[in-house]
Amino acid sequence: MFxxxxxxxxxxxxxxxxxxxxxxxxxxxxxxxxxxxxKDYHVAVCEQNGLLGGFLASWQLKDFRFIEHFxxxxxxxxxxxxxxxxxxxxxxxxxxxxxxxxxxxTELAKRRIQFYKRNGFYLNSYSYHQPPxxxxxxPIPLMIMSSGKALNPQEFQCFRGxxxxxxxxxxxxxxxxx
Length: 178
Description:
Blueprint: E1 2-4, H1 10-20, H2 29-34, E2 41-48, E3 51-60, E4 65-72, H3 81-91, E5 97-101, H4 107-118, E6 121-123, E7 128-130, E8 140-147, H5 153-166
Parallel strand pairs: 4-5
Antiparallel strand pairs: 1-2, 2-3, 3-4, 5-8, 6-8, 7-8
Domain N-acetyltransferase: 1-141
Protein name: GNAT family N-acetyltransferase
InterPro entries: Acyl_CoA_acyltransferase (IPR016181), GNAT_dom (IPR000182)
């Protein structure tokens, strides 16, 4: 059900990503494809009825696992596939998992936050901006959710420093190249 993505499946995964995330929250296709060569970047896929139904892209950081993108094919949503994928991912490793969510300002954002809360995540109240994913984009104000427990200020600073450096390749302020 849940397995590592084959390189031949990248186009399908990227199509789900395009349908699920605004342009500002995903890299251009070639930049995303280039990540497949990173040793700490992993994409797992889930099949549903013989078709690629969803994916979860994550980074192994020093102290955390970071879910960068997680999506289910729009035609297969609301049938428990996302829940099963997330549970499988969380059970595979005891490291704390961290992810970004939009602030609860829309119904969709509120539903997404509730989904993660039902799955053992805590919404942290720290100020956080996702650095730009491509040239010409601006940082995006997001919120951080963490599995198992809320992050204390030191853990949050550690997470932000790790994710800015390794995932976004920017300095701790999120704006200058690292």
